[in-house]
Amino acid sequence: MYGELEKMSDLEFIIKQAIRSKTSVGVFIEVHGFEMPEIIINPPENLEKKLEYYKNTYDEDLEHKNAKGIRIIGYTFC
After folding, report:
1. Cβ distance 42 to 51 under 8 Å?
2. Among 20, 52, 64, 68, which is 20 to 30 Å from 12 by CA?
C-alpha cells in the first residue's frame, strides 16, 4: 500500500517530512512495459541528496526527463 504522488512539490513535501522524522522513504517507479512498479528505498541519511537528484531528473509531473515511460507514482514510509 502506498500514497499516490502527482507533482514534484508532493514528493518534496514527503521527503522533507521524512528528513525531519529520520524515516526512510520508499519511492514507487512506474516503468512502461512492466506489470508492477519498482520500489526504491531511500534511507534518511540519503534523502537530501536524493531529493536533489529527483528534482534534476524528473519534471514537475514526476516524469523522467530523459526516459519516456518512467515516472514516480507513489511513496511509502519505511
Report:
1. no
2. 68
Long-range contacts of 29-37 (CB under 8 A, 24+ apart): 29/70, 29/71, 29/72, 29/73, 30/70, 30/71, 30/72, 30/73, 31/69, 31/70, 32/68, 32/69, 32/70, 33/69, 37/73, 37/74
CA gap 66, 45 in Å, rounded: 27
pLDDT tens-digit readout, 49-67:
999 999 999 999 999 999 9
Residue for grid cell 529520520 = 22
- State how far the Cα of 33 lies from the Cα of 11, in Å rounded to an integer: 24
Say what the pLDDT of residue 59 is: 98
